[in-house]
Amino acid sequence: MKFLFKLSLIAVLFFVQQVSAQLESVSPIVTGSGNPVLFLPGFASNASVWDATVTQFSKTNQCHIIDYAGFGKVEPIDFPWLPTILEDLKAYVHSIDNDQLVIVGHSMGGTIATWLASQSDLKIKEIIIVDGLPCTGALMFPNFSPESMTYDNPYNQNMLSMEDAAFEQMAMGMAQGMVTSSQHQLEIKQSILNCDRKTYVYGFTDYLKLDVRPLLNKITVPVTILGAGKLYGVEGATQTYKNQYKNLSSYNLIVNKDAMHFIMLDAPIWFQKQLQLILV
């Protein structure tokens, strides 16, 4: 029986590797054995953001960790960027072909996890959203309209032409608002600086345009949302989640009052405990 299990596992991994080789916008890393877990980083992040988490859960699960094109480890691709990533990840989930698959997505990765869960032809057991929203654009712009968001706009032009020193200062300011420790702030800043500038600028436009809210009523798998409450308070964060996920029939929302956006870095023990309740 063990031999047959190992043989089937090898066959699945071989098929996954074959599909991976055909994907241009994402690059998966696979480690560990057991029920599969797909880890999706956020915007301007790479697979290393999951290092501590994967070290723990690769002991009990087969971990699939994703890198996105243009974010320092995978060559940039043509635009539109995010729609290509969505389709490539859909193909990758098809290749895993396991109804025990759990998807863990941080920030933009959580948005992608939500989109994948809305696709009725995919085998997914559950998704875990880590401080992610179905439509970040609607949070930032009161009169949000995806059609009005284009690559060619003054903000993007300024970002593309910004001097390296000014861009680095901007990246540091962003990092300081997303994680508590100075060491992690430096790591996040460097992750932003490692991005292809055009991918960073136009890719963010793609991200802001993505609105998964109309698809929420198609999701039938369990959804857990792990929220960050340090910046805006537990009540403020909770209200934002409720507003954005109101079309989702059922979900479990847990907010950590002491964590900023990168919950897995700010509260690793708490974060891993929440995952353990679902994965193990």
Automatic annotation (TrEMBL):
InterPro entries: AB_hydrolase_1, AB_hydrolase_fold, AB_hydrolase_sf. It comes from Nonlabens xylanidelens. Keywords: Signal. This is Pimeloyl-ACP methyl ester carboxylesterase. Residues 1-21 form the signal peptide. Pfam families: Abhydrolase_1 (PF00561). It comes from the Bacteria. The keyword RNA-binding does not apply. Residues 35-135 form the AB hydrolase-1 domain. The keyword Amino-acid biosynthesis does not apply.
